[in-house]
Write a structure and sequence with these properties.
single chain; 78 residues; mainly alpha
């Protein structure tokens, strides 16, 4: 059956989109929460927005590492 194999040229496309969505989603969600906190607290220079964006990016990178970055069988280190 055509297209049923996972070893084609497009096999890694799903993983790439999952990584992209995780990174963008983390930045958007945590950045939005920081923005809302800035608005509620009345902080004029959007400090919490920047903190939210940085925390969202760091958390998303960590989640991508946990899901896709750990190699199996790499128990001995470098």
């Amino acid at each position: 059956m055509a297209g049923s194999g996972r070893d084609g040229a497009w096999a890694g496309m799903g993983i790439g989109w999952a990584v992209t969505a995780t990174l963008v989603g983390g930045i958007l969600v945590w950045g939005s929460l920081g923005y809302l906190a800035d608005r509620l607290l009345g902080i004029n220079p959007r400090v919490l927005t920047a903190v939210g964006i940085v925390l969202g990016a760091a958390g998303a990178i960590y989640l991508v590492y946990l899901r896709f970055g750990k190699g199996e069988g790499n128990h001995g280190g470098a």
